[in-house]
Amino acid sequence: MDKDKLAKLLMATFLEELGEHVRALNRDLLALEQKPSAADRVELWKELFRSAHSLKGAARAVNVELIERVCHHLEEILTSARDGQLTLTPVLFSLLFETADALENAGGRLREGQRLDDSPIAALLPRLEAAQLTDETPAGQQTTGEIRGQKSEVSQRRVARPESSKGVESGFELLPRPSKTQGVPLQPTEPQSPAPAAPLRAAMSRAASASNTVRVPAEKLDTLLAQSGELLVARRRVAARDEVLVGLRESIGEWRAEWKGVEKPLHDFLLAHERGESLEALPTRAAQTLARAGDRIRQLERDLERLTTEAVSDGRQLDYAAGSLDAEVRRVRMLPFAEACQGLDRAVHDLARATGKEVELVITGGEVELDRSVLEGLKDPLLHLVRNAVDHGAELPATRLERGKSPCARIVVSAALRGHQVEIVVSDDGQGIDLAALREQVRRKGLPEPVDDRELTRVIFQPGFSTARIITDVSGRGVGLDVVQNRVEALRGLVDPISQPGQGTSFVLTVPLTLTTLQVLLLTVGDQTFAMASSHIRRLVRVRHADIRTVQGREVLLLGDAPVPVASLADTLQLPHGEIAPENHVPGLLLTVGDRQVVLLVDEVLSEQEVVIKGLGARIRRVRAVSGATLLPSGRIALLLNMANVVRTAHGRRSSTLMAATAGSDAPSRRRLLVAEDSMTTRALMKSILEAAGYDVTVAPDGQAAWQLLQERGADLLVSDVDMPRMDGFDLAATVRASSKFAKLPVILVTARQTDADKTRGISVGADAYLVKSAFDQRHLLETISQLL
Predict the structure, then answer these.
(1) Cβ of 700: how many Cβ atoms within 10 Å?
(2) Are 152 and 98 in contact (CB under 8 A)?
(3) Which residue of 493, 529, 582, 630 shows the fewest CB atoms closer than 10 Å?
(4) Model's pTM, two decimal places?
(5) Distance from CA of residue 53 to its chain's centroid?
(6) Are 488 and 381 in contact (CB under 8 A)?
(7) Do 698 and 715 touch, CB atoms closer than 8 A?
(8) 269-301 pLDDT, tens per residue?
(9) Which residues are paired to 673 by β-bridges?
(10) 273-297 in b/e burial notation, b at 16+ Cβ within 10 A?
(11) Among candidates 644, 768, 654, 669, which has minimal Cα distance to 718?
C-alpha cells in the first residue's frame, strides 16, 4: 500500500476513533457533573483519562498536532481536578464541554479536508492553558453567566438551532415569554440534567460508531461463521449432484448413438409392413436394441427418482442454510437503540441551561436492537422531539412548583418490541400541547378546524404551526415536528402525539425492525405497478358505484355500521384513470394507519409476496407518496407507497397541499407591510428585500411616523427597529397592542439589542418575533413574515 493510501486509511480510522472518544467525554463529564458516589467518581476519572490519553496518542499517530496539544491540556486539567488542585466549578465544566464540542467540530473539518487554524479548537488552547495553571477563573474567560450566553460556535449550533442538521443558520434569539404570574424574570439555580443510568451508559459505550463501519460483537461473527459453514456443506451436496447428472447425460448419449445406428433399418421395416409386403425377420441389431430399450428406460426412471429425491433434500438444506445465513447477516446489522440516543443527554443538558430549566433525561430499552439503517434514521427525529420537550413541554422550576410538581422536569425516551416493529415513546411531564393556541392558528390560516381534539393535535405536524408565542432561534417557526413526521414516515413508520393539558405530552413512534425486506401486496393503477405494505391492509372489498354514499360532502362506503371514507388511489396519487361504470365491481382495499381508516379503489390486485426494498435515488427522494421501490421477477419496477402519506392524503388532510393552497390564495402582492427604521440605508435595503418578495411596502423614519401611517393607511404587518427618535420600537409595539383596531396586528422587532433585559421587554410589549441584526438573514425574515401572515 502506498503512503497516500495508508495516510487516508489512518485518517479515516482516527476520525472514527475521535467520534467515539468525544461521545465518551460528553457522557462521563455529564455523569461527573452530577456529583456521583466516590466509587463511581474513581471509575469516571479512569474513563475520562482513558479517552483523553487515547485520543492524544491517536492524534500524534496521524500528525494532528493541534488536537494532540488540546488533549494534553485536557489531561493536565483532569489530573489537577482529580488530585484536588483544581476545583470543578460550573465555569470549568463549561470549558470542558466546549472542548468536547470543539474536538467534534475539528473531526468534521478534517473529514471535509479543512484546516484547523481558525477552528474553535484553536481558540480554546489559551483558555485550556490558563485553566490548568490556576484554581480561579481562567485568564481571559468569562463568568458563568457570560459563558452560558457566549458558547462556542459548535455549542451555539447544538443548543439553539433545532434545524441545524439541515444546515440552517437562524438569526433569532431565545426569548421565553414569562407567564402572567411570573413577574420578575427568574434567576434559576443550576439546572439538573442527570446523565444516563449506569446500564444505559454501558449499552451506549458498546454501541457502534455512526459511520461507514460498525463494530460487531465476537459472538455474532462466530454464529455467522458457523452458518457460512452450513452453507458450504449444502453447496458441496449440490455439487455432488453434478456427477449424477453427468452420468445420466452420458448414458442417454450412448443410447442415442446406438439408436441412430438402427433407426433407418427399423424405419424401412415398418414401412414395408404398412404396405403389406412380405417381411423378413426384424434385423438382428434392431431387435437387440429394442430389447435393451426397456431395461434402459427402467434404469433411467430409477436414476431420475433418486436424483429428484436428493435434489429436494439438498434444496431444503440449501434453503435452511441460506435462510439462517441471511438472518445472521441481518442480526449483524442490528444495533442497540442506545446508539440512536447518543448525544441526547448533552442536548438536554445544554438546552436546559440555556432556558433556565431543570430537566432529567431517562432512557429505557437501550438494549433493544434495530437495523442500522432504521437506527440512523431515528437520530434526527429523537433529537427534535427531546429538544421540543425541553423547550415547549418543561416549565420553569418556579412554575412547576406553583403547579404542585417537582422543580425538575422529566423526559423519558423508551423503546420496546411490538412484534416485527419497535415502539419508541418520547414523553415529558410538562404543560402539554396548547390546544386553544392551535385552534386559533387554524382559524387564522383559514383551514378546516378539526372538531376532535386528537385530530387537532396532529396539526402540529403541519409546516408553519407552532404554539410558541414568540419566534426565536429555538422555537416558534413551526420547523421541527413536520421534519419528524417526514423522517419517520420515510422509515415506513408512524408518529402519533398524545397530550394531556397540564400533565405532559407523549410522541409514540412505530417503526419496523428492518427496511431491507417487506411483505407487500402488489397492485396496479393504470399501467403502473405499486407495492403496499401488507400490515396496513385489513381486507379486500368489491365496490360498485351504487355502494358509495355521500356524508357531509365526503364519499364513504358503509362497512358494517361505520361509514369509511373511500377514495381512488389514482386520484390520491394524481394519476389518470377512467370513470367507474355503474354496473362494474372495482377492487378496494380497506386500509388502517394509526386510528385512520380508508378504502382505496385500485384497478387490479396482483399478488402478495415478500420483496427486497431499494432506496430511492436523490432525484425522487422527496416524493412523499413513495418511500422505496422493488424489482419484480418480471423485470418491472414496483414503487412502494408511503402508506401514512397516502391515507392522510385520501382523508383530505394532506398538510402540504393545504398550506400551499392557502399561500397561493393570499399572494404576497396583496399584503401591505409597514417598515419603521431610522437608518436610511437599512430602510432602503429592507424595502428592496420585501418588495422583491412581492409585498406592498410603506416605510417610516421613526416610530411616531409609523404610528401615524398605520392609522391613516393600515397594514397587514409591522416590521420595526427598536432604537429610533421620537418613538422607539418598544413604545411603538406597546401602542399598537393597546389599540383596539390594531391589537392583533403582527409585529416583528429587528434590532441590534440582544441582552436578556431587551428580549424580556420585547416580550412584554407584545412583539410576535424578535430578530437580531448581528445574525440577520433575509430568508428568515421572509419566512417569519410568511408564517405570521
Answers:
(1) 22
(2) yes
(3) 582
(4) 0.57
(5) 34
(6) yes
(7) yes
(8) 777 777 776 656 666 767 777 777 777 777 887
(9) 697, 717
(10) eeeeeeeeebeeebeebeeeeeebe
(11) 768
